[in-house]
Amino acid sequence: MHKILRGKLKEHCWEFLNNGDLGMKIGVITYYKAMNFGATLQAVSTYCYLKNHGHEPIFINYIRKEAQEAIAKGKGDPQWKAQLDFVNGIITNQTSICETAQEVLQIVKEKHIQGIIVGSDALLQHHPLLSRLHKGRRKPFYVSHVASDRMFPNLFWGCGVADKIPMALMSVSSQNSAYQYFMPWTKKAMCKSLSKMRYISVRDTWTQNMLKVVLHKIEPITPDPVFAFNQNAGAFIPTKASILERFHLPKKYVLLSLFTQVLSKEQITELKEMFEHDGIALAVLPMPTGQSYEHYVKHDIRFPLSPIDWYALIKYSQGYIGSNMHPIVVSLHNAVPCFSLDNWGRVNFKGEKVDDGSSKIQHIMEVFDVANNRRMITHGKCNVTIHEIYEGIRNFPRDMVRQKAACYLQEYNDMMELMIKQLKNK
After folding, report:
1. Which residues of 335-369 are buried (b: 16+ CB within 10 A; e: fewer)?
2. CA dist 122 to 31, 42, 239, 418, Å?
3. How far is residue 21's CA from residue 420's CA, in Å, rounded to a whole number?
């Protein structure tokens, strides 16, 4: 009898293995230690998804010299500590720092990693010389510097690794790379590296078009992991009551988060008074890499600020007005009214923003049919009236956005299942 039971158990385990139901040791490579709320939240979302589905995520600490120096400079900054405390408190399975493909492969061998996910973030970048040439003030022109991890070839493209272990690109972005200027030999080398990937998906149409030029095929657009944050990491989100108490906020508030003084203090005062007329307070939300700007707003949230509190502040608000992409993603995920003062997109020779579809904010707002709630920032100013912002928040189609967010969550889950299946395939 015992032999029969052992035999059936062995048979059941063999079927379990063959069906691919056994969890994997999956390495993750992304920007997760950065002065950026969105980068840390998307990394935590990925980590929690893999843990919740029985896998063992191992974050490979791939950081080039320039990024290490930036982190070293940030030591002692309370906001840096808040960022790192949040990440390290949840993503407990991390490796030592790796700078090269060889070091990553050594980690893969030591940790018995079975596959690597690269993403999500602006990891698939390359900025050719012509796109970095700009008109100067003291000189006729200058060439802007780009860090080595934002130029091909590097490990994010799979160089030196993808031919030795299964790799996948998950919802990656090219950060408006000027692919029109890619040299033929560069595109050929890119194609050779990317062809070794088991799975590729992108986050926006600009990156999709870039890969169409490089790979001569259309890769799918898939959601940023923050679109699944409530599902994956909801247990870490503080309650609304605790947020209101700790930040001294009323029950109804709208957030303003500017990168620079793109709205005058008089415009901000006008906006504040319009919302106050509706019984809604205006609160200023800081931006890690932004600059200070003048305003007369009473509710001024200050650093240090944990990324999870930042997320919750947006989630429980009546609206978000400001720059950067991930606050818009958090807003759309939670069906919170939002208005983007868009600071993204390509820059031309004169240093002017080009409204050519390269903005990742433009893409996601078009997907959710709220592109009318977006205005570009050019020359440090935004051509928008306070009435337009107010009406954009007041008339925001919350029900429609909520339905689209539910569809996006399903697309995310489908992507994760397919990607992991591809990593498992022999």
Report:
1. bbbbbbbbbbbbbeeeeebbeeebbbbbbbbebbe
2. 9, 12, 31, 21
3. 11
Task: Please determine, for residue 42, whether its predicted confidence score (pLDDT) is greater than 80.
Answer: yes
Q: What is the largest CA-CA distance in the chain?
A: 89
Q: How many CA atoms lie within 13 A of 149 on its CB side?
A: 19
Mean pLDDT over 44-68 rounds to: 93
Q: Lowest mean pLDDT of 62-76, 183-197, 379-393, name the range.
A: 62-76
**Plot region of 419 (φ>0 → left; ψ -120 to 50 → alpha; else → beta):** alpha
- pLDDT above 60 (res 24): yes
For residues 228 and 412, the answer to whether their CB atoms sit within 8 Å is: yes
Could you read off the pLDDT of 137-173 as tens digits, one per residue?
777 788 888 888 899 999 999 999 999 999 999 999 9
> What is the spatial distance between Cα 164 and Cα 209, in angstroms, rounded to a whole number?
28
- Element (H or E) spanning 94, and its range? strand 94-98
Question: In this structure, what token pair is assigned to residue 192?
Answer: 């050779």
Nearest CA to 32 out of 100, 93, 78, 104 is that of 93
Neighbours of 190 (CB within 10 A): 24
Which H or E element spans position 73?
A: helix 65-74
Cis peptide before 225 (omega within 30 of 0): no
Burial class (CB in 10 A: 0-12, 13-18, 19+), 285: buried
Has this prediction a pTM greater than 0.70?
Answer: yes
Q: Which residues pair with 316 in a beta bridge?
A: none
Q: 10 Å Cβ neighbour count for 15?
A: 10
Rounded Cα–Cα distance for residues 98 and 191 (Å): 25
Q: Tell which wins on pLDDT, 134 or 27.
A: 27
Q: Averaged over 276-296, what is the pLDDT?
A: 91
Query: Which token pair is 65?
Result: 């010299």
Helix (H) or strand (E) holding 214: helix 205-215
Task: Catalogue the E-assigned strands of 122-213.
Answer: 133-135, 141-143, 167-172, 199-202
316: tokens are 């429980």
